[in-house]
Amino acid sequence: MRDIRRKLTLGLLAVGATLGGLALPTTASADSASAVQITLCNDSDVQIDYWIKGYNQFNDWDDSPVWKANAHTCATGWNYWWKKNSSIELHYKRGSAAWTWKEAYIPKTSSSTTTLRLS
Predict the structure, then answer these.
(1) CA separation (Å) from 115 to 21, 33, 35, 36, 107?
(2) How far, in Å, CA of 106 to CA of 38, rounded?
(3) How far apart are CA 50 and CA 9, in angstroms?
């Protein structure tokens, strides 16, 4: 009887570990999709706050958190992947100005990042 209980317990633990591993979220990556991370270069004299809306690596319409790009620097939106060969919305504001947005095209490339510039 003890053997059966031990085998059943081990079996349940194995199933629980397998299902638990499937339920845990993983870091986004472009390995499974044709996607890139976006680097925004700020060529202006003031800080830019920005966020991106578009199709992610899972082909879901999604948006990012707000990021900051200091004056004359570049900033990458780490762990957010955007579908290649598609358009995104780049929402941004310079300093204390109002929010605005523009459409940007994400080309099909072999690189894992694409650089956009705002001046």
Answers:
(1) 35, 19, 13, 10, 10
(2) 9
(3) 52
